[in-house]
Design goal:
The chain is of the alpha/beta class. It has one domain (about 5-130, about 170-180, about 195-215): Decaprenyl diphosphate synthase-like (Undecaprenyl pyrophosphate synthetase, 3-Layer(aba) Sandwich). The chain contains 7 helices and 6 strands; from the N terminus they run E-H-H-E-H-E-H-E-H-H-E-E-H. It has a 6-stranded parallel β-sheet with strand order 3-4-2-1-5-6, sandwiched between helices. Helix 2 packs parallel to helix 3 (about 65-90) and helix 3 runs parallel beside helix 4 (about 105-115). The chain is globular, with a radius of gyration of 17 Å.
Length: about 220
């Protein structure tokens, strides 16, 4: 039976859910936060150590400014209301991506990371302003800057996910089957599950079904 250390999730479908149910993309994003809370709780129950959530990509800046502002207000409210609770639950928060946000958001992210730094029950990697291609370029530039040899170990050591094990599982909700510039290096041997449900409809039972399915998969890593 396969042990699960790390689950990565592309939380797709919030906007479509909002249009379908409330005629508002923003309300879909708000509903998606409830699902995040359920999956965090379920990850702890399943003793998963790392949960990576694709919250905002480098390409998401192309969206309407009003929607982007709403998303960052949601993030701000989420951190302000939940970070103390995370700390009590021994949840660590780490941001992966380039922190090119407002001064207010940058300070809040820094404070949240610092407050939860020593926690060990679950590490949530929040992918914000994240793009895997720019992450790989960053890694190669750091290797060059430090005059290191280009090899797999050094590339991994300069990624935003340094010292984090590669995901065992990638889940993408929203009935879309692509990686969307997410953890391209790290997903080399990850088992991928595409889920038809939109993110706000995804629940703990759906999550547990995927975890249990993964446990039974024979993983060969190129062997037979």
């Amino acid at each position: 039976m396969n042990h699960i250390k790390h689950v990565a999730i592309i939380m797709d479908g919030n906007g479509r859910w909002g249009i379908k149910h409330k005629n508002s993309r923003n309300l879909g994003h708000k509903e998606g936060i409830r699902t995040v809370e359920k999956i965090i709780k379920s990850s702890i129950k399943n003793k998963i150590k790392y949960l990576t959530l694709y919250a905002f990509s480098t390409e998401n800046w192309k969206r309407p400014k009003k929607e982007i502002n709403f998303l960052f207000n949601l993030l701000e409210n989420f951190l302000l209301t939940k970070i103390s609770q995370f700390n009590k639950q021994s949840i660590k928060l780490k941001v992966i991506g380039k922190k090119n946000f407002s001064k207010k958001i940058n300070l809040l992210l820094k404070k949240s990371e610092k407050m939860t730094l020593k926690n060990k029950k679950l590490q949530i990697n929040l992918a914000l302003n994240y793009g895997s291609k720019s992450e790989l370029v960053h890694s190669f530039n750091m290797i060059k800057k430090n005059k290191k040899t280009i090899n797999e170990k050094n590339i991994s050591n300069y990624l935003f996910t340094q010292n984090i094990p590669d995901p065992d599982i990638l889940i993408r909700t929203g009935n879309t089957q692509r990686l969307s510039n997410f953890l391209l290096w790290q997903l080399a041997y990850t088992e991928i599950f595409f889920e038809k449900k939109l993110w706000p409809d995804f629940n703990e039972n759906d999550y547990n079904l995927i975890l249990n399915k993964f446990k039974k998969i024979k993983r060969n890593y190129g062997n037979i």
